[in-house]
Write a structure and sequence with these properties.
Structural class: alpha+beta
Strand content: 25-35%
Shape: elongated
Low-confidence stretches: 16-24, 407-412, 427-440, 470-491
Number of domains: 3
Largest sheet: 9 strands, mixed
Length: 491
């Protein structure tokens, strides 16, 4: 028995020593990641452990996993790699060391930004049907797929290799076509590639031609005008792609696809470092502040046309010559030739210049223009010679937006109502007078009563005057008080 006991003790000691040796020989992770964000229900599972609630800055190492509930989000950071797990996703750190980041992406969607990729480092994302290797710094969007549906890889910047389902290919980001022709400083450039085509036009260089537009479409025709400080009247285009072509560059007529036809093309002009916004690259036709006269019942109308390449835009909201020249940079060959105005007026050579697109003017009633209503359905037709001979207005029609409608009160009804409210009723006055005891004569009594009534009348008169004045100053709108008459007059 003693020998048996000694044998058991020796066995236990040997197992403990072996275990300690194994733990001493175990390689500790040289690289770790972390939970960088947790929005909603995010869970963390240690290697060979159970799922628990994840917290920001929980460390991540080989064998650990992260998953998100529906509508939850989780951020994972590993060195130069930053990623976001969408709702309903699960990812396991399959391997993480100095040379390899391997993530088993089991379900859901993950967005990855790789800031740097050192030589000899591999970034691998395993999917249910294949794998993705990130080959360069960039931005990637990966959907895991499942046993029935293949995964999806989108490369916004960088380069990746996808292998799976009999496919092995390299995917590289492609620079948007628009950025080969315009600077990213032109707001709205991102909407151009899907809505039109880039072509080369003789004498104009690179031009953009919209597709799927109405037969009578022309620049600055399908949309409306809106007053916005500090520019004044701004064009708001109906087309989703209409921002950049409405506020930068110029419009030109180029040869159509069929012989003898023409079509509109947007000419962005030469690239400049900081393109400057224009409320609308147009000139107006008519008299300042008035517009053009038209047959009854239309009344006055407002007309405008798009500027063509090489034609200078003179804004109505500034007289700063340096700013005017910067606005025209890239579309006017020599902006130094744009001379100063005369006082508050633009240079005479711009007023008398020939404008190529004047014959394509759009005309609408003044009420449509100033009211910010849709232009296309309200167009008015005027004889070409009328548009050709009318005065030219550069940049602005000098028409102010309509003021808020005044609230007009007829004095007759207003004063009558106020008088009825403020004047004390006779019965109440009499009651108060009768409640006073007089020790003097009847004559003194009458004098006292007369003085009292006079004070009451004077107080009522003053109250009426104060009430009318207060009503006239009411902040609910501009209030005009018309003269008293049997019929109210409206201004």
């Amino acid at each position: 028995m003693p020998n048996a006991r000694i044998l058991v003790v020796l066995t236990v000691l040997l197992s403990v020593i072996c275990g300690m040796t194994a733990r001493a020989d175990e390689v500790l992770p040289s690289q770790v990641g972390r939970i960088s964000a947790a929005n909603g229900a995010v869970s963390l599972r240690p290697a060979s452990g159970e799922w628990t609630t994840a917290s920001i800055n929980d460390p991540l190492a080989t064998g650990m996993a992260v998953r998100t509930a529906d509508r939850a989000r989780a951020g994972i950071s590993i060195g130069a790699l930053r990623s976001v797990l969408a709702g309903g996703s699960e990812a396991e750190i399959a391997r993480l060391d100095d040379a390899t980041v391997q993530i088993a992406f089991k379900q859901g969607r993950i967005g990855i930004h790789l800031a740097r990729l050192d030589a000899g480092t591999a970034i691998e994302i395993d999917l249910p049907q294949g794998a993705v290797w990130l080959l360069a710094p960039g931005d990637y969007d990966i959907t895991a797929g499942n046993d029935q549906l293949p995964g999806r890889v989108a490369v916004f910047a960088g380069q990746a290799r996808f292998a799976g389902g009999g496919t092995d290919r390299t995917i590289a980001s492609v620079e948007p076509a628009a950025l080969k022709h315009v600077t990213a400083g032109i707001t709205g450039w991102e909407a151009l590639d899907t809505a039109g085509t880039w072509e080369s036009a003789e004498g104009l260089g690179d031009v953009w031609v919209p597709k799927s537009v109405p037969d009578d479409w022309a620049p600055y025709r399908y949309g409306h005008w809106r007053w916005a400080a500090p520019w004044g009247w701004n064009w708001v285009d109906d087309m989703a792609w209409g921002f950049a072509p409405s506020h930068y560059g110029r419009w030109a007529r180029i040869a159509g696809t069929n012989t003898g036809t023409e079509r509109w093309a947007w000419v962005p002009g030469a690239e400049v470092a900081h393109p400057i916004y224009m409320p609308a690259a147009v000139n107006f036709i008519g008299s300042a502040g008035v517009g053009l006269s038209a047959p009854d019942p239309i009344g006055s109308v407002v007309a405008w046309f798009p500027l063509a390449p090489g034609e200078a835009y003179w804004p109505g909201y500034t007289s700063d010559l340096g700013l005017v020249r910067r606005i025209n940079a890239g579309v006017v060959k020599d902006v130094a030739k744009i001379g100063p105005g005369v006082g508050s007026e633009p240079p005479g050579e711009l007023i008398t210049a020939h404008y190529q697109n004047r014959r394509f003017a759009t005309v609408v009633p003044r009420a449509v223009f100033a009211g910010g209503r849709a232009v296309a359905p309200a167009q008015v037709s005027l004889p070409p010679e009328r548009l050709g001979n009318a005065p030219l207005l550069l940049g602005s029609p000098q028409i102010m937006p309509p003021a808020s409608k005044p609230v007009v009160i007829a004095t007759a009804s207003a004063v009558h109502t106020l008088s009825r409210i403020l004047t004390p009723q006779p019965s109440r006055v009499t009651a108060r007078v009768r409640g006073v005891r007089y020790s003097g004569s009847t004559s003194a009594h009458a004098q006292t009563r007369s003085a009292f009534n006079a004070r009451v009348a004077m107080s009522a008169s003053r109250a009426k005057a104060h009430a009318v004045a207060a009503y006239a100053r009411s902040p609910r709108g501009r209030t005009h008080v018309a003269a008293a008459s049997s019929r109210p007059r409206w201004h």
